[in-house]
Amino acid sequence: MAGQPAPIMAVTSDSREVADGGLFVAVPGFDTDGHEYISLALQAGAAAILVQEDKRLIWEPMVEKAGAVVVSVPDTRAALAQAAAGVFGHPARKLGVVGVTGTDGKTTTVHLIAHVLESAGNPCGFMSSVSFKSGDEAKLNDTHMTTVESPRIQQGLAEMVAGGKRVAVLEASSHGLALHRLDECEFDVAVFTTLGRDHLDFHESMDQYQAAKGRLFQMLDESVPKDTSKAAVINADDPASGYFREISNARLLTYGLSEEVDVRAREIWSEGLATRFQLVMGDKTEDVFVKLAGQFNVYNCLAAAAVGSSQGLSVEEIASGLETFDGVLGRMEEIDAGQPFRVVVDIASTPEALHRVLDVLRGVTEGRLCVVFGCAGERDEARRDGMGRAAGELADYTVLTNEDPRREDPDLIIEQIAAAVRSAGRTEGDDFTRLPDRREALCYAFEWAKAGDTVLLAGKGTEQSIVMGTEHHPWDEAQVARELLGDA
After folding, report:
1. Which of 18, 290, 313, 454 pairs as cysteine with 365 (C-beta 3.0–4.6 A)?
2. Same domain? 212 vs 307
3. Same domain for 17 and 101?
């Protein structure tokens, strides 16, 4: 009697990561088609190949000749998430899972939620565009992806289960939601931060972009029952909040600055790059001091407070958690090497985010304000105009440089930004300059700065490379800044 086939213990859509006896899922990509890598997957020892239904007849003879099994499905991207969840034992069913989506504020909100819940006795793991945490220490996310592919997500969730975590907090990008990376995550709480124009290179319209983010809230109604209380947490002050209120049957919790919301802030006072405010939940009020600057970060705190409230935390527990939060690397991160001027690293890579960060820094800067930034290639070109205008309107001096030009002409990207800076009434040479080499750009800005000035390094945050063409060149914004400032 023939033996039973060995169970599949590994799954991937990257032929370079195929394990002997594993499953290779052929996913049609934007630049290449995973089906073209089936032969490499078979050479690496794949025991099974998952293909699109319309391509089965093409690849079945090769797969069967190699002694592997071929399975066809309508959508291999969706099947990739299902297979990964199965391989890792459906870890999301063993955790409370919180998802955070929005144009801006996602990362800081993820970290705030995880910190607030953990400080109240709920061990938390998280996956954000900055870092992953499944055990005791967080590891930097070096992928250039806000939401990684589904096998890595399911592996991370399984590691959280093994590490004794009770809650997982996931940053849910529109790409991740639209491309099924977050399928099988069994969400219990969904959080909406803001909605602004972005990623229209991928989604084609604001309606599609909004709908992609709305998918997170629809998933609340599809997830398996667990002990975690389900909730839809909405920023009621955002114009798009009405859409997100209507797409889930989960309990609705709103946050904002008006009196009509469930969780709100009042008496907001800035203290340098920190903030004081009163946290109001129902008839309970608690004073809060957070080491975060700007009204946008008050909103992030309120989102975390609303999630905490949804899970039964008291206003005192939430306030205590917020006050012990130390911030997020690459988010309004100060670099202090003893220089007489302030240097801040921030990811700000959308017009709205750059405008907000510059506005905050303007309010705490005694002297002049300089910003160093570029815009990513092969991304929504509207960012270039919006970010150029923000810099032209709010900064005293701008240094235009490379971010991740990818396969676009770096000089053309910078010229498009420069045109927007000029449209804000600025003159090249007097008010801004171009230095495509990012190290040179940072060095120039630091030489420009005097005592009392502020230099904002925007767009890279904690990303560990600059993408030129298809090559990733090592880069660490904060480290390079320290080296140039003499604190290597």
Report:
1. 454
2. yes
3. no
